C-alpha cells in the first residue's frame, strides 16, 4: 500500500508541474478587487440570481485563499452559504457558514462574526426548526454587535430574537426585543425590516387577542411588502395574517391570504433557478477538491525532492515499483474475475429489488383498498342498522315482521363480513398486539354459549360445556382474542351440525410458577370434513360443504382462528371424518398471578351511568346518520344540535356551550381532525368524541394529536356512547376540582 502511494505521488508531481506553469500566468487580484466581487455576489443573491452569485463567490473565494486573507475568505463563504440557504440545501449552507465562522474567528473583525452567527441563527431557527441552537447563535451575534456598538446590526439581531421567541410561543421573552425594535425602527430600520416589524407586531397583538390592532399591522406589512423587492417577509405576513383571520372567523379573507402565500412561496422556489444554481454549486465543490489536491501535490513535491538526494532510495523505489507492478497484475486478474461475478450478482439483486418493491406496492394498495372499501360499506350499513332499530322502537307491531327481521339480519351479516375482511388484513400486516386482562375462563365460555344460543336453537343443537375445576379462578391474557377464536370455532360447529351436540371442553395441561397451559377442545357430531379438504379449510375464503346445503359464511373464520393462535404462539389440530363430526384442539399458555389479578380487577372501570340531561353538539354531514344519532340522543332524554360541517361547528361554539361534541371524521370542506384541532386552538376543553366508520386502530394516533378524547366506531350501541360521555364528563369535573 505504501508503494501505491509513492506511484500516485509521482503522477501528481507530473500534473503539478503542468498546473504550476499555468498558475504563474494567472492574474492576481487585490483585496479591494476581491471585496468588490463579494459585494457584487451579494447583490445577485438579493435578486435571487443564484447562478451568478455562485459564479462570482467562487472566483472571490479562489483569490481570497491565494491572498491568505481570512476576512475575505469568511465573507466569501458567507455568500456561498447564503446561496445554498436560498436553494433550501440547508446542510450545505450550515457547512459553509460554519467554515466561514472558522476563518472569521481568526480575525479581530466582530462585524463578520456577528453576520455569520446571525445567519446560522436564521438557518437553525427558521429553516431547520431547531430554535434552541438558533437562539444560541443569535445571542453570540448580539454580543459581537454590542462589542463594536454596531447599532444597525444590533437592531437586526434583536428583530431576529423577537421573531424566534414568538415563533416558539415564548412571547414573554420576545416582548422586550419587540419594544426595542419598535423604538429604533425609524433610526436603524429599512424597507425590508419594516415588513418584518409590522408582521411581528401583528403576531404579538394577535396573541394578546387585540385583533383590530393586530389586523392593522398585518395590512401595513403586506402593503409594504408589495411595494418593495424583498418578498420573503411578505410571504410570512400573508401566512400569519391568514391565521389571524381564521382565528376571528373571517374565513373568506383567510383563504385569500393563504392563496396569496402559496402563490408567492411557489415563486420564491423556482425550480429552474434551483437547477441552474446547482450546477454552479457542483463547480464550487470541485474547487474545494482541487485545493485539497494542490495541498497533496505540494507535499508530494517535497517528498520527491527528498528522494532525489539519495540514489539508494531511488534504487529501492524502482525495485518496489517492479514488485508493485507484479502485485497489481495479480490484483487486476482477481479484480476482473470479481467484476464478472459482481455484475451477475447486481443483475440478480436488481431483479429481487424490483420484485420486492412490486410486492410492497401491491400490499400497500391492498391495505388502502380494504380500509377505504370497509369505510364506504360501514357508513350505509350503519344507516340500515340504525333505521331498522328505529322502526322496531317506534312501531312495536312490526317486531314480528319477517321482512324487517330479514333486513336487520342481512345488514348485520354484511357488517360481519366487513369486520372479517378487516380482521384478516390487520393480522397479515402485523397490526394486532395481544393485551393482558384478568378474566375467569368459566364466565367467558358461558357468555359465548349464551350469545350463540340463538344459532344453536335454529339448528336444533345443544351446547355442552366441560371446564376442568383445577384451572385457576383468574387467568391473565387477551380474553377478547380468545373469545374471538372460540366464537368462530363454536359458530362453525353449530352451522355444520343439525339436531346434534357441540361440546366445549377445557382442561388444565400444566400449572408451573406463574404460567398456566390450558387445552381447548371444540367437538361436534355434524357433517364432518372429508380427508381431501382438511388441508384447505384454514385458507382464506375457502368454504367446504356447500355442495348440498347453502351454509352461510365468509370463508374467513378458520383463517382468522389460525392467525390469532399464531399470535398466542400456538397451533390448532383437526380430527374429522365425513358424516361423523369434527374436533378442533389447541393449547394456549396464560399468565397466572393472584396478586396481579387482584390489582387488575381493582382497576376495572365501573359503570358511570347517570340520569343527567346533556346538551350535545353533533357534527355530521350524512342526513341519515343525523336522524339516527338524534333519535339515540333524544331517547336518553338529552338535547342535541346538529350541524353539517366543521365551519358551522366552529361558528356555533363561539356563541354557545355544550357538554360534549360528537364529531364525524370524513366530512367535506374541513374534516373532523382539522375541526377538532381548531376547537382546541380556541381554548375550548369540551370533550370531543369521534363517531366514525374508520377502524379505530388506524386513526387513533392522529385523533389523539388532533385533540379527540375518545373514538367510537359506527355502528354503535347507545349504552357505549353514553358510558363514554359520562366517563369523560366525570374526568373533566375531577380535573377541574384539582
TrEMBL record:
The keyword Cell wall biogenesis/degradation does not apply. It catalyses: ATP + protein L-histidine = ADP + protein N-phospho-L-histidine. It comes from the Bacteria. The modification 4-aspartylphosphate is found at residue 664. It holds the Pfam family HisKA. Keywords: Membrane, Phosphoprotein, Transmembrane, Transmembrane helix. GO terms for molecular function: phosphorelay sensor kinase activity. Its EC number is 2.7.13.3. Residues 615-729 form the Response regulatory domain. Residues 372-592 form the Histidine kinase domain. It is an enzyme of class 2 (transferase). The chain crosses the membrane at residues 312-332. CDD domains: HATPase_EvgS-ArcB-TorS-like, HisKA, REC_hyHK_CKI1_RcsC-like. SUPFAM superfamilies: ATPase domain of HSP90 chaperone/DNA topoisomerase II/histidine kinase, CheY-like, Homodimeric domain of signal transducing histidine kinase, TPR-like. This is histidine kinase. It comes from Flavobacterium granuli.
Amino acid at each position: 500500500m505504501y508503494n501505491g502511494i509513492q506511484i500516485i505521488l509521482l503522477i501528481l508531481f507530473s500534473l503539478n508541474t503542468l498546473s504550476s506553469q499555468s498558475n504563474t500566468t494567472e492574474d492576481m487580484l487585490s483585496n479591494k478587487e476581491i471585496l468588490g466581487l463579494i459585494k457584487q455576489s451579494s447583490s445577485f443573491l438579493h435578486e435571487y440570481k443564484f447562478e451568478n452569485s455562485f459564479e462570482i463567490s467562487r472566483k472571490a473565494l479562489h483569490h481570497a485563499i491565494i491572498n491568505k486573507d481570512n476576512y475575505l475568505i469568511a465573507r466569501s463563504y458567507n455568500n456561498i452559504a447564503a446561496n445554498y440557504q436560498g436553494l433550501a440545501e440547508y446542510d450545505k449552507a450550515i457547512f459553509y457558514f460554519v467554515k466561514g465562522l472558522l476563518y472569521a474567528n481568526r480575525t479581530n473583525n466582530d462585524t463578520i462574526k456577528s453576520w455569520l452567527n446571525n445567519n446560522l441563527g436564521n438557518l437553525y431557527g427558521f429553516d431547520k426548526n431547531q430554535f434552541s441552537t438558533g437562539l444560541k447563535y443569535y445571542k453570540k451575534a448580539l454580543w459581537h454587535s454590542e462589542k463594536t456598538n454596531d447599532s444597525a446590526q444590533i437592531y437586526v439581531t434583536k428583530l431576529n430574537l423577537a421573531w424566534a421567541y414568538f415563533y416558539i410561543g415564548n412571547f414573554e421573552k420576545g416582548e422586550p426585543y419587540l419594544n426595542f425594535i419598535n423604538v429604533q425602527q425609524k433610526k436603524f430600520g429599512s424597507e425590508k425590516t419594516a415588513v418584518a416589524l409590522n408582521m411581528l407586531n401583528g403576531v404579538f397583538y394577535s396573541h394578546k387577542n387585540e385583533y383590530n390592532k393586530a389586523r392593522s399591522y398585518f395590512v401595513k406589512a403586506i402593503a409594504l411588502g408589495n411595494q418593495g423587492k424583498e418578498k420573503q417577509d411578505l410571504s410570512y405576513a400573508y401566512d400569519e395574517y391568514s391565521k389571524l383571520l381564521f382565528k376571528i372567523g373571517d374565513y373568506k379573507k383567510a383563504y385569500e391570504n393563504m392563496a396569496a402565500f402559496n402563490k408567492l412561496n411557489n415563486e420564491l422556489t423556482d425550480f429552474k433557478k434551483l437547477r441552474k444554481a446547482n450546477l454552479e454549486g457542483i463547480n464550487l465543490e470541485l474547487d474545494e477538491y482541487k485545493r485539497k489536491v494542490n495541498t497533496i501535490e505540494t507535499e508530494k513535491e517535497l517528498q520527491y525532492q527528498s528522494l532525489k538526494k539519495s540514489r539508494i532510495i531511488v534504487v529501492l523505489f524502482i525495485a518496489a515499483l517492479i514488485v508493485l507492478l507484479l502485485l497489481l497484475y495479480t490484483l487486476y486478474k482477481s479484480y476482473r474475475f470479481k467484476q464478472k461475478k459482481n455484475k451477475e450478482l447486481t443483475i440478480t439483486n436488481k431483479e429481487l429489488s424490483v420484485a420486492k418493491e412490486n410486492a410492497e406496492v401491491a400490499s400497500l394498495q391492498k391495505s388502502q383498498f380494504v380500509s377505504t372499501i370497509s369505510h364506504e360499506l360501514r357508513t350505509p350499513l350503519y344507516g340500515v342498522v340504525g333505521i331498522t332499530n328505529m322502526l322496531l322502537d317506534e312501531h312495536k307491531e312490526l317486531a314480528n315482521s319477517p321482512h324487517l327481521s330479514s333486513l336487520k339480519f342481512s345488514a348485520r351479516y354484511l357488517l360481519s363480513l366487513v369486520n372479517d375482511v378487516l380482521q384478516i388484513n390487520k393480522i397479515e400486516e402485523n397490526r394486532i398486539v395481544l393485551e393482558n386482562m384478568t378474566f375467569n375462563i368459566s364466565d367467558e365460555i358461558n357468555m359465548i354459549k349464551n350469545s350463540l344460543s340463538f344459532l344453536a336453537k335454529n339448528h336444533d343443537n345443544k351446547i355442552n360445556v366441560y371446564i376442568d375445576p383445577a384451572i385457576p379462578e383468574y387467568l391473565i391474557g387477551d380474553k377478547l382474542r380468545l373469545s374471538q377464536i372460540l366464537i368462530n370455532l363454536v359458530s362453525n360447529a353449530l352451522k355444520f351440525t343439525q339436531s346434534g351436540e357441540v361440546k366445549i371442553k377445557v382442561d388444565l395441561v400444566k400449572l408451573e410458577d406463574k404460567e398456566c397451559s390450558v387445552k381447548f377442545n371444540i367437538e361436534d357430531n355434524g357433517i364432518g370434513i372429508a380427508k381431501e379438504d382438511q388441508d384447505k379449510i384454514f385458507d382464506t375464503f375457502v368454504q367446504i360443504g356447500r355442495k348440498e346445503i347453502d351454509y352461510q359464511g365468509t370463508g374467513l373464520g378458520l383463517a382468522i382462528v389460525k392467525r390469532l393462535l399464531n399470535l398466542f404462539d400456538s397451533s390448532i389440530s383437526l380430527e374429522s371424518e365425513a358424516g361423523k363430526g369434527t374436533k378442533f384442539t389447541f393449547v394456549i399458555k396464560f399468565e397466572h398471578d393472584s396478586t396481579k389479578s387482584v390489582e387488575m380487577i381493582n382497576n376495572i372501570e365501573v359503570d358511570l351511568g347517570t340520569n343527567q340531561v346533556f346538551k350535545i353538539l353533533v357534527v355530521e354531514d350524512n342526513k341519515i346518520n343525523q336522524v339516527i344519532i338524534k333519535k339515540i340522543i333524544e331517547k336518553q332524554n338529552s338535547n342535541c344540535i346538529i350541524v353539517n360541517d366543521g365551519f358551522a361547528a366552529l361558528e356555533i361554539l363561539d356563541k354557545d356551550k355544550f357538554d360534549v361534541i360528537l364529531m364525524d371524521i370524513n366530512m367535506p370542506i374541513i374534516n373532523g381532525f382539522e375541526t377538532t384541532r381548531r376547537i382546541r386552538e380556541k381554548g375550548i376543553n369540551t370533550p370531543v368524541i369521534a363517531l366514525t366508520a374508520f377502524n379505530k386502530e388506524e386513526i387513533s394516533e392522529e385523533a389523539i394529536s388532533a385533540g379527540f378524547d375518545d373514538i367510537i366506531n359506527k355502528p354503535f350501541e347507545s349504552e357505549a356512547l353514553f358510558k363514554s360521555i359520562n366517563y369523560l364528563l366525570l374526568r373533566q369535573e375531577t380535573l377541574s376540582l384539582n
